[in-house]
Amino acid sequence: MISVTADTFRLAEVFTISRGSRTEAKVLTVRVLRGAVAGWGECVPYARYGESLESVTAQIEGLPANISREDLQYALPPGAARNAVDCALWDLEAKAAGKRVWELAGLTAPGPEVTCYTLSLAEPAAMQASAAKNAHRPILKIKLGTPDDMPRLEAVRAGAPKAKIVVDANEGWSAEVYSDLAPHLLRLGVAMVEQPLPASEDEALLGLNRPVPVCADESCHDRKSLPGLKGKYDLVNIKLDKTGGLTEALALRQQALVEGYGVMVGCMVGSSLAMAPATLVAQGAAYTDLDGPLLLAQDRESPLKYADGMVYPPEAELWG
Length: 320
Fold this sequence. Notes:
The protein is an alpha/beta fold and 320 residues long. The protein has two domains: 2-98, 2-Layer Sandwich (Enolase-like, domain 1); 113-311, TIM Barrel. The chain has helices at 53-61, 69-75, 80-97, 101-104, 124-133, 149-159, 175-187, 240-243, 246-258, 272-281; strands at 2-17, 20-34, 37-43, 113-114, 117-119, 139-143, 164-168, 190-194, 214-216, 235-238, 262-265, 287-288, 306-307, 310-311. The strands form three sheets. Strands 5-6-7-8-9-10-11-12 form an eight-stranded parallel beta sheet. A three-stranded antiparallel beta sheet has the order 1-2-3. The longest helix is centred in the N-terminal third of the chain and has 18 residues, at 80-97. Mg(2+) binds at residues 168, 194, 217. This is Dipeptide epimerase. Belongs to the mandelate racemase/muconate lactonizing enzyme family.
């Protein structure tokens, strides 16, 4: 049996990016029950990809109750619906076998990874205060993509002079804007820029001098995306809600590394259940961005451990 329910997690404070603000995380929780064993997973439908709670629920409810993880890869396209079911099936398989998912996947035992912490988009003074409050964190991620990006970036650097900074432009720039800003990004110690151009316009990155490395987010979903990224990007951001689950995420990670891309492992704003499978993909990644639970006012029982700027792999009580 496959069941799906909608759950809401309040955020600790309003979270804003260039596309809008939110005060809660709305997720779907999938449970797969077979005999006396149950597995579960979580996804976050994303309007940017034409998803809603209703549309993703319909996709999940349309699946055969006994579908295998292998058949699932062909039954649904990459996206949130396949992600939640895929991760639930991994959890189910692990519980049935009395093993951990990393063992079933042929991986080495996972350890903690340094994670980015995302600062909400706000006025420069507020972002400087937020940066100062979180200056102890090793990597701060800044949501930009507005006409007033430089004052915000300057403010964050003033608030956290020692932190590594990565920037997520959320498709808000052009090639010209990137080129104009690049010297200032270097001056302020920005390590990487995520998705500066709209995915539909990223041909402009071909042949462009990239003194600050560029990471594909909206332009990269699964392995089929890789041929279209050549010459444009230096890294790829792997999110399970884009790949359609852990199965494809692991395959994408392997193929991206073979093709010479750096790997970032990211997330939507969700609970520890959504992050848990991604911690396996994040092992050894250039950047880990699994801070979703840190933005919540509430989380799942047996949540992931966050300490000293790191995210730890899940205990079996949570997932896998």
